[in-house]
Amino acid sequence: MRMPRRPRLLVPVAITLVAIVILFFVFAGVFTDWLWFDSIGYTSVFSTMLVTQLLLFVFGALLMGGIVGGNILIAFRSRPLFGIGMFGGSSQGADRYRAALDPHRKMIFIVGLAVLGLFTGSSTAGQWKTWLLFINGMPFGQTDPLFKYDVSFFMFTYPFIRMVLNFLFTAVIISVVAAAIVHYLYGGFRLQSPGVHATRAARVHLSVLVGLFVLLKAVAYWVDRYGLVFSDRGKVFGASYTDVNAVLPAKSILAIIALICAILFFAGVVRPGGMLPGVGLGLLVLSAVLVGGVYPVLVEQFQVKPNQQSKEREFIDRNIQATRSAYGVASAEVTAYGAKTQGTQQEIQSEVSTIPGVRLLDPTVLPPTYEQLQQIKGYYQFPDQLDVDRYKIDGVSRDTVVAVREIGRPPDRNWINDHLVYTHGFGFVASPGSKTDPQGKPDFLVKDIPPTNGLGQFEPRIYFGEHSPDYSIVGGANKELDFPEQSSNGQGSGQVNTTYTGKGGVAIGNFFTRMLYAGKYGETNLLLSSAINDKSRILYNRDPRDRVQQVAPFLTLDGDPYPAIVNGRILWIVDGYTMSEDYPYAERRSFGDMTRDTSTDRLLTPQQPRDQINYIRNSVKATVDAYDGTVSLYAWDEKDPLLQTWQKAFGGVIKPKSQISPQLMEHLRYPEDLFKVQRDILGQYHVTNADAFYGGQDFWKVPEDPASSKTKQPPYYVTLRMPNETDPRFSLTTTMVPNARDNLAAFMAVDATGGADTKIRILQLPSETTIPGPKQAQNAFDTKAASVLNDLRIGGTTETLNGNLLTLPFGGGLLYVQPVYVQPKVQNSARYPTLFRVLVMFGNDVGVGNTLKDALDQVFGQSAQTPANPTTPDQPTTPTGVTPDLTSAINNAQKAYDDGQEAIKKGDFAAYGEAQKRLAEALKELEAALGKGTGTPSATPSATPSPNPSAAAAATPAASPTPSPTPSS
Question: Whole-angstrom Cα distance, residue 177 to residue 193?
Fold first, then answer.
């Protein structure tokens, strides 16, 4: 039956409309991407990627289509004219399939090749990095020890050869299958007893294709020889004794045998019969099993295993040298360190001047404190983990805890508020890491809205940040919220508006551009809103990591961008890595596993991909302007051949290191993810003797975080002085413990302000010592300071939080320093922690004090005299005296709490509710009393102090516990 005329016309119309819609969205995506790259001046990156991918797509699709399509046509045109009966009868199955497919063969042919070309082209285009590395590869100037080729061959050429071979293997296999199907359908061969009967044309065609496959196999066997530098057969990664002495000659022999077998298949073209191809195929299979499989196993079992240490010594040494070079730790300096447990007064006096500047504010604990004290309005937010930078305060460089106040969720969610009004954050917040106010709260250098100028004047608006909206329309007729306006009494009374004047974003004034972005975001308001005019701009791709990743797709980025004030602007600083898995002989490990620790498990920083790598360099420092989104890339490790290769591929998108301004240089630091990778590698590869490495008894591991028994302790930024150095340096540090024990094995640090060639310094402790590791130190703190810490938990109304456990070289030994915070125990969104105690440990001696000086005095005696002025940035300040009102408020709070607990035991819920009300009132009295008094006396481990009124400083009006609802019976 034929369809009526009108429905037959509707089908192509509907298909055309669907195609137009699809093409529109594809065009909108591509063109808006070009507009975005154009807005930040990186169209060369976009064009290089687009042109490369298009060419690879077209080339791959056409080549695959040509090979497979050509073989299908050869099979079809060589079909027998009377094929259905030439083998003694027709094949009903083939006849039936041919009858069904033959009328549509042209359409099936075209559609099939189109689908094949689409998948092949997409796969080939996805290999654009391999292609660009191949054609732009720069030499390393280093050769591998086995083949004596430059390392660039294995990094750039070998992956490309493997890609080409995989493509050709796929094309030949598909061609064999497709040609066999066509020959079968059109009578080229039949499956009949006693075997397969084929026409000469079919036999010749298929013999040539199989011969080409075997020829490719011969080439693959030869190329596989070079892949032995990536073998994991032996004790370590890289070619082992068995690989070099058995597998390598076996691959060469197999390549020759495969070449002979290919010739035998080609000989089948001129000599009828299947004997020669059969002999060739049997020879290939047999040799692959015996030569390629059994022989290496025998060598491994009977030569290597009984003498593995001596046999593998040379190859272990190759692995050690390559791994240390590939991960940038070849210059790591290991120093034997006695790690004294007691120091002389002279040693203590020489060291103590560096201790008061130790950072005590923990960037992972303080976000709620920043949120409560500096959020200002509910639609602002701070990150889940703050950052540590350094600034000059009173002429001295100090560790500083910093964050930016970003825009969050508008109080009333609608399209206008989300995208036109609440467009940006406002302000930069910074506090010295070693100083607090009398209540244990951060002593802010920069705070409030508008921000104070403790670090100079700067542009405070944050249009580009880690938590910015997905897109915002700025610069048009709409008035954006700039910041909340405060009245003279400190209460909010309105808002100050602004209009964006920066160069960031894409102009969206004309209708065509608005239509494209309406399609991109599926939002008709972009077309209909009267607030959008010819001055409007759309901001998107606003996360600093996303922006850098877009303009530098060849980089892997550090998980922790951080803000800094540079030349009156807030800049996000992002570290970029060049990485590879193709460095010969170097150990391969998962990047995600090596960088995983407490911060990633708690989702405070992004988890990195689990890609296997064996080469990494911090080759690029990138910045993103928080106001206009400008992205700048600077070459940091200009000697890196991988970076040089990408620079050659993408032209001048990366600026030379010489263009980094002195002001920016002051805030560049050694990146955290790189250090995590290097400490993971140095856990084994600090051992450089092959025999000792084989034994493995001196291997280390990263200790577990004392706060969590399942994840690794993160490294810490802190200013310290390493032994034999005169000045303290801003450093990135970590500890290491033996593989099967918890005592300390080594302390590792790197100058975080140094250049790309900065070396890691390792203080290795004697193996016979039992210096406590981080977990053991935490246990000592919890045990020996239990009475003092319990006192901070006023009747269960407050709780203590342990800050980062810092380890510092001190007096010929190692000093542990840990801040302790107090916060209300009541679960509410307004509570926040404040610093109340400092714990120190040297050897087995533990000190607990209101200040770092107090704690040091308990461990070292009065010889540890730090500067006496408690208000300098050198030490945290805490209260020192008790007022009568404060004591009365504490007693009232304690009694109310005790009465409530007693009422719960008796089941008197009415009395419990009354006690909770009195507890809330008592805590308010504490707040008022704290305004008059100055704090609490010092506490020592040897004396249990009276209930600590200062702990109640954490219970500000916002943090005061509310009366609990009366429980139901």
Answer: 22
Considering only 19-23, 170-174, 551-555, which range has the smallest mean pLDDT?
19-23
DSSP three-state, residue 182:
helix
Same domain, 251 and 374: no
Work out the angle at residue 315's Cα, subtended by the Cα atoms of residues 309 and 317, and round it to the nearest 5 degrees.
Answer: 90
Token representation of residue 290 = 């015996």
Q: Which of 483, 460, 488, 482 is nearest to 377 (CA)?
A: 483
- 217-267: per-residue pLDDT in tens? 999 999 999 999 999 999 999 999 999 999 999 999 999 999 999 988 888
Residue with the bigger pLDDT between 502 and 489: it is 502
Same domain, 547 and 537: no
Using the predicted structure, report yes or no on whether residue 919 has a pLDDT greater than 90: no
Distance of CA 191 to the CA centre of its chain: 57
Q: What is the mean pLDDT of residues 22-49?
A: 94
Q: What is the dihedral of CA 773, 775, 781, 783, to 10 degrees?
A: -120
153 lies in the same domain as 291? no
Same domain, 314 and 448: no
Residue 124 inside a domain? The answer is yes
The count of C-alpha atoms lying within 13 angstroms of the C-alpha of 386, restricted to the half-sphere facing its C-beta, is 28
Q: Provide the token pair at 475.
A: 């610069």
Residue 611 is given by DSSP the state: -
- Considering the domain architecture, whether residues 188 and 212 belong to the same structural domain is answered as no
Main-chain phi, psi angles of 737, to 5 degrees: -125, 160
Six token digits for residue 449:
């809205």
Helix (H) or strand (E) holding 818: strand 813-824
Whole-structure pTM value: 0.86
Structural domain includes residue 718:
no
Q: Residue 424's closest CA among 628, 631, 630? A: 628
Which of 7-16, 141-150, 724-733, 865-874 is most confident? Answer: 141-150
- Give the pLDDT of residue 867: 41
Instruction: Single out the residue in 172, 193, 214 at which a domain terminates.
Output: 193
Q: Do 377 and 454 share a domain, yes or no?
A: yes
Helix (H) and strand (E) counts for the chain? 30, 32
- Whole-number Å distance between alpha carbons of 658 and 651: 17
Domain co-membership, 906 together with 930: yes
Question: Measuring CA to CA, which residue among 435, 398, 350 is closest to residue 864?
Answer: 350
Give the pLDDT mean for 375-381.
93
Per the structure, how many domains does the chain have?
5
Query: pLDDT tens, 256-297?
Result: 999 999 988 888 777 766 677 778 788 889 989 999 999 999
Domain range enclosing 509: 357-542
Judge whether 149 and 239 are in contact, CB under 8 Å. no
214 shares a domain with 156: no
d(CA 863, CA 342): 13
Q: Quote the DSSP letter at residue 952.
A: G
Which one of 158, 193, 228 terminates a domain? 193
**Mean per-residue pLDDT for 71-86?**
76
Q: Over 60: is that where the pLDDT of 641 sits?
A: yes
Looking only at the bridges linking them, the beta strands covering 425-426 and 461-462 are antiparallel
Distance CA 719, CA 390 (A): 9
pLDDT at 781 (0 to 100): 93
| pLDDT level of residue 91 (50, 70, 90 thresholds) | low
Q: Let me know if residue 185 belongs to a domain.
A: yes
Helix (H, G, I), strand (E, B) or coil at 938: coil
- Domain contains 914: yes
Report pLDDT for 349. 65
Pairing of strands 333-336, 380-381: unpaired
Q: Give strand pairing partners of 815.
A: 842
Tell me the longest C-alpha to C-alpha distance in the chain. Answer: 117
Please give the Cα distance from 76 to 186 (Å, whole number).
7
The residue with greater pLDDT, 915 or 752, is 752
Please report the pLDDT score of residue 789 as a whole number.
82
User: CA-to-CA distance for 382 and 718, rounded, in angstroms?
Assistant: 22
Burial of 397 (0-12, 13-18, 19+ CB in 10 A): middle
